[in-house]
Amino acid sequence: MPSVSCQKCHQNVALPASTTSASGGLAASAWGIISSADRQLHALAAGDNDDATSSSQPNLSAPLTHKLLLQSALKDILTAPRLNHPLCKECTDLLVRIMKEETEEIRSERDALNRFVKEMSEHQDREEGDEEEDEMYAGQSIEELERQSKLATDELRAADAERVQVEEEIAALDREEAELEAEEEAFCAQHSNLLLELSAVSAQRDSLRTSISLDAAQLSRLQQTNPYNDAFSIGHSGGFATINGLRLGKLPNAHVDWKEINAAWGQTALLLDVLARKVGVQFTDYHLIPKGSFSTVKKASGDEAVYELYGTGDWQIGRLLAPQSRRFDHAMVAFLELLRQLAAAACASDPELRLPHAISKDRIGEASIRLHFGSEETWTRALRHVLLTLKVLLSWACRRTDD
Question: Which domain of life is it from (predicted)?
């Protein structure tokens, strides 16, 4: 069997018996298959050369089919695969598989192209329908735009009229603004003047408030101050009752001058008279006449005798003379009676008032106020009771006035 090489892989190809002759050569049919491609190429090449040499002289008698066949042969040669024959089985199978894959790809491209053509046709149909709809919509839009244009024109005219009216209103507002600015300037000037007046009035008010505060503080201080307590200060010193620092009484172990005693009696008589006037008590039987160190008590009826409420330096000598000593005692008893009347009036007007000592005739707190035929200690104790009672009545009278 003759050996033939594969045109792809260059391996020996075993030809079937039908393709060989008895002498071992290729059959005419087999050789034609192998060499058909070469003969076709050579023939086409020769034809091309003839055409090239005769191109200068046109062959009008050549049939049209010859040109068509020539073009078809050229196309087949150009599109023919580059592999020459014969091929081995493996290369043939590979080639067949490749061609199948290419065929499938071409079919896919064909199907895709068909789908694309179909979609393009449908799209064109839709576009034709859309164009009709667009034309109809465009007509409607034109009508709508014309209507809107007319409305806009009417609105523009109305806006122009309104603009004219607004300009007139603005002019009126400008005039009103000018008037308001003038009024504002006048108001600001008036406001400034009022602020100045207010500042002056505020300063005066603050000054008055300060004066009122000071006066109120002074009034409160004065209200808390009792002038009667300042005028009649009752206390005690070394067993003696004192009024304004003057001792009232005598003790054997303490010498007190009669001038001091008489001055103390004058202050005591004045205090009783002031309290009676303050409370509004009218004394009966006697009239008290305060005259400092020479105060007296006058009888209101009968002979209207006057009794001296003071003693003298020779009182111890006069004590032996009954009429003179009794006049001083009688004056002190009359004073005690007037004190009892004031105490009774105070207790009647204020049931809650409690006096420290009871007064009965010539006694106050079980101590006799008579000095004649009595001891100085008892007399001094009675005088202490007198001043203590006056102090209680003074405090009550001051509270009564405050209430």
Answer: Eukaryota
